[in-house]
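Subject: Sanity check before I submit

Could someone independently write out the structure tokens for this chain? I want to compare against mine line by line before I put it in a report. The sequence has 1188 residues.
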Amino acid sequence: MHLKRLELFGFKTFADRTELEFLPGVTAVVGPNGSGKSNIADAIQWVLGEQSMRSLRSLSAQDVIFAGTQRRRPLGFAEASLTFDNETRSLPLDFDEVTITRRLYRSGESDYLINKVPCRLRDIHELFLDTGVGCDAYSIVGQGEIDAVLSVKSEDRRALVEEAAGIKKYRVRKREAIRKLEATQANLTRVHDIIAEIESQLPPLRDQAEVARQFRELRDRAQALERALLLTEYRRALQQVEEIRRTRALAEERVETIRAELARVESEAEAARFAVTRAESTLEEARAAASAASQKVERARGTLGVSRERLASVEAGEADDAERIADLERALERCRREKEEASERIAAAEAAERAATEELRRCEAEVAAIQGRMEKLARVVEEHRRQAVERARALTNAQADLRASGRQVQDARAALTRATQRLEMLGARAATQQAREEGLREKVTEAERRCEQVNEQLRRAEAERATLQRGIVLAGQRMTELRTEITARSTRLRTLRELDAKLEGYRDGARAILRARKEGRLKGHFVPIVDLLEVSPEFEAAIHAALGDDLDALVVDSLEEAYEAITYLRKEGKGRATFVVREAAVPVADGTEAQEILSRRATQHVRFADAHRNVIGAVLGNAVVVRHLEEAREVLALDHARYRAVTLEGDLLHPRGILTGGRANGGAASLLARRREMAGLEEETARLENELARVTKENETKSAALRAAEVSLRRQREEASRAASALAAAKKDLDYCAQEARRLADDLRRAEQSIHQAEADVEKAVAREARLRAHVEQLQTQDSGADADIESARASLEELNRERDRAAEAVADQKVAAARARQQVEGQRENAARAHRQEEETLRDIERRRAHMASRAERVRALREEIAGQEAELAQFVAAHELAQKELDERRAERRRLLEASGKIEQQAKEVRDRLAAAQHELHRAEVKLAGVEADIQHAQTSLYEQYGLTADALQQVSREGVPEIRNRQQAGQELRQLRAQMAELGEVNLGAVEEVERLEERLRFLTTQREDLTQAREGLLEVIAEIDSETRGRFMRTIEQLRQAFNEIFVRLFGGGTTAIRLTDESDVLEGGLEIVVQPPGKKPQSMLQLSGGERALTATAFLFALLRIKPSPFVLLDEVDAPLDELNVARYAAMLKEFAEKSQFIVITHNKGTMEAADVLYGVTMPEQGVSRIVSVRLEDIPEAA
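---
Independent answer below. Compare away.
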């Protein structure tokens, strides 16, 4: 792999599209200072993913985009592409060429591409991983950075060696594995915590679930009973509406009568329309018949022509069939001759097969006779052997019995000894067990006393908890009631505020002014007068009557604002409005009125701010409030000219004798009530919320007390459980002790019996041993005479076996001969069968051909008859076409007549529809009346829906199912109260506990499985990390040894002598320790890099770079003015190294030194003919000036 091409466009000073071709070997890039040579190096690093702007000699990412000159505009993006030769497939892509492209837009967007396919920066890094190529690899050394190779920190220097060792990919894999390990460990810890939390939650939650099940059962019974009560009320309401529905049914009957008449008329109209439609259909059918008759004539003529052509074709095929039949008859004769010859050969083969079969039978009979004698003799031998085996087995058994009898004697004597010892031991244990039983009885008595004490404490704790639970349930019910009331009042308040915001209750003019002011179309302040005063409910009707048309009057600051508003109303046509000008408002002056009038003035019964006194006095100052009209006449008699009197019911008596009264009907009359209701609702809502907060706080206190009581109750239960367990354990120990005492007594009796039994067993065993010795001696005497008979019979059997083998060979030969003869017979039979099949096939073919000829003759006759019929049919079709055309003309006349009759019937139907509309109007009035009654039923349905979710359809379904009606409502109510009391006794209930227990148990099972999977994954990751560390350590140490040798050799060549040393800063940490480099130039002491001169540092860094390239050659190496600090002699050495290493790596060097240029195979010159724009030009070596 090597770098093949670099393409630039808009990158730094390369404004135009520029392409540089690179060949293997050394390519030098030369040019004056500032011409843009190093921009080529920057471009290569940039494409490979360099992110450091400092390394690219820029301040920001956009600095790499061509910034423009005095003659050129800036470009919008920069693009650079590197093309690699990949014929060796060094890169893991199946392409001969791989092109890496990077593009940056001035907006900050960036693109990476591999072979023009978008990719990520990470994909590019992974593509060149451990290839020696990369923006941070040792293969790229920027301008002035050569001595920085060794001046960096020892840990950073290590990265260069790791690149050469090819272990960066292991580093990446290890980091990924560690990241996964940390995530796995975190997940494992989290799963442990969650499992512990779930396990701690489950026990109390299971108790709550049991309570929830009881609560649900009681609640379902209570809801069913309450729903039945509501349904009973609903049914009774339905019965009340039946009378109204009967009235509506009469109206519907009248409508149906007219509809029937309309249906009859419409039926006649429909019949007329149908007759027209049928006439039109008949007309279309006549048209279609005429067209079909014409088409039939054409098809008949075409069919006749086709039939005549088919007749000619069939007659031509008869001659071919006759010739084919003659050929088949000759083939049939040949088949019959072959079949006769095969029959003769079969007869000869069958005779040979019979002879071989007879010989085979004879040989097999001889073998069977020999086999019979062998079997008889074998049975004799087997009998002798069986008897010998039986005698040997009897002898063995007798000897074993003898040995066993000896052991029995010994065992019986040992058992006698053990039984005596056991008897003594059991006596001692029985005494100990009796003492232990007395101690256990005292322990049981103490445990029973403790258990009773703990149970009493537990009962008191449960009673306390039940009291707290009832209090919490009652508090919860109160909280629910309060929330319901708050919701209802908030909803009503929100509705009133919406009405107020929509200016409902104001007349059109006032509403238009307020909206225009809100939308900014009018300036000034327009305040409704009702917003300036407060009225108690007692005086609302009186103040409303006193205000009259001024109820929605608007208060303004000046006459100009009022004039502007009136102009707006007049211009827009929005109605009229009343304005009270604040600066011009004059209240009714106090005079010499009687005290009865002053105390009753309307201004005395409203509340308002002092700033609005003139305004309120202007509109209400001449009104007095009285209880009734009689009082009004008495008051006005005192000052009849100046005051109006209003009663508390809203009747208004004018001084001129005009009386206004009655009942207000919506509109503006509701403004004062709305204001009062809104204020009352806000106050009531605040009070309810405060009470809710108080009840909530009390409930929380009780809940905390309940939790403490439950904790105490759990402790008491645990204590009771421990006491009960201790009592049960003590009783169990006592029972066990009593059982043990009884068992010991039984053992004592059995031990005494076993002693007597053991003494008798010893005597029996001695006698049996003597009998067995005599039997063994007798069997040994019988066994010696049977061996000679067995040997004689075995010799005879071997002789017969040899005779049987000879006879079996003869049988095998005869079987082969018989099989060969049988095979010949089968072959000849197959030939005969094949000839027979061929004969039959030929016969069938002849028959088919003859049948085909007969069929052809029949077909010729049929075709001729068919042609005659087709000619007659054609004549019929022509006549039918003429008749169809005549029928078409008649149908057209019939259609015109039917259209005229249909028009008359349609007029009659219109008159009936008008009468139906009038009857339907009467029905509508009846339905409106019914709707009013059904609204009441709807209210009942709403209650059932809100409380039990029963829709109208569900109510009808329940009614159809026949839910029993509750007759004794008082008894049902008492039962409902009892159910609710039982629910309250259960205390605070967690209704979701049942589902929560199921969910937690399912989650616990899932998490347990997940914990096992995570543990296995963690172990696997630890193994992977250990394997990576082992491989990394081995590769790194091998590379260090190679680097030491290569660095020393190249250092000696470049310096003409000296030594080097590469050491690990921490030998104990091979995987993370840094590298320390110490060199000794010729004639000097060992020195660190900081003690060297600039030229020595550069040359040492160059030696280190070439050492890295020796142990791991890079596909290409980019060196930007690396030789700048070197003198002429060292430049020559540097150039020689380039030529040597160019055999394995491609070098691209940017230089000013002529010696380096002479080592190059290709030269590129960079110039700047236009200020700020670089170009590539050809350069001759002799024209390059020497570096200063």
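---
OP: Matches mine. For the report I'm noting this point. The chain has 20 helices and 23 strands.
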